[in-house]
Design goal:
The chain has seven helices and nine strands. Bound molecules: zinc ion.
């Protein structure tokens, strides 16, 4: 059973370029038909088979916010098909968080990424731990020069100058999240509390997964594109560039 909640007027359609589905967003890329379409939201209401008034399927109070009803549905204006949501997480048709893995992500990392994104819909703790494991595995692959004994702290410090400042910052968040998230400490850090909260957890896990995609983009895809461009140049131009580089280095030293 659904009851109308809020109707989206056409002019409310978000003008931003982020089409990723999110709870209460007026428009996003439909998980069924793929079109960026307006979404009509409704609260899911449970009603006894004996009749009578319906009520929230599941109420929830969280540290980050209060949901009178955790369950909602969004209906695509184009294909009319529904998606079902529990708190901030879409559980049908695609029970997963975050964007798709970057096409250049190495296969064994991609496997972890997809698992983290899917399990997060069911368990934020498992999702956060796996998202961190995804980033850790990727970092190991991207920095073959590190010693096998180096912990994640050292490995992240080694990458610091090779990535953009924004990404370096989020990598530090990764450090603080995952290793504590599984330990179930009596007094978990603020970040761990956020990662395990129904309201804020999906955003934290989404940010960890986005960091994995950004790492692939900055350290695999862009260097590859630059190399492909360089390879297209004629030998003459390449020699010319090499000579200019050598001269610039001589002047510097
Ligand atoms: Zn659709």
């Amino acid at each position: 059973m659904t009851e109308p909640d809020e109707h989206i007027e056409p002019d409310e359609q978000s003008a931003d370029s982020d089409h990723h589905p999110a709870r209460d967003k007026p428009a996003f890329a439909c998980p069924h038909c793929g079109v960026v379409a307006q979404q009509k939201w409704a609260e899911l209401v449970g009603r006894s088979a004996m009749g009578g008034p319906g009520g929230p399927v599941e109420s929830g109070t969280t540290a980050g916010g209060h949901f009178l009803n955790l369950w909602k549905s969004s209906h695509c204006a184009v294909c009319q098909r529904p998606a079902l949501w529990r708190a901030e997480v879409m559980v049908y048709p695609s029970a997963s968080l975050g964007d798709r893995p970057h096409p250049d992500m190495p296969p064994e990392v991609r496997e972890l990424y997809v698992e983290a994104a899917s399990v997060a819909a069911v368990s934020l703790r498992a999702g956060a731990a796996l998202a961190r494991a995804t980033v850790e595995k990727l970092i190991k692959q991207l920095d073959s020069g590190a010693s096998s004994k180096d912990g994640l702290d050292i490995r992240i410090a080694r990458l610091h100058d090779r990535v953009s400042p924004d990404l370096a910052q989020i990598l530090n968040v990764v450090r603080f999240t995952g290793n504590k998230v599984l330990h179930g400490e009596d007094q978990p850090s603020e970040l761990v509390v956020m990662a395990l909260d129904d309201h804020t957890g999906p955003a934290v896990i989404g940010a960890l997964l986005a960091a994995a995609n950004d790492l692939v983009d900055e350290l695999i895809s862009r260097p590859k594109e630059r190399k492909a461009l360089f390879d297209k140049l004629s030998d003459g131009v390449k020699q010319d560039i090499a000579q200019k580089q050598a001269r610039a280095q001589e002047e510097q030293s």
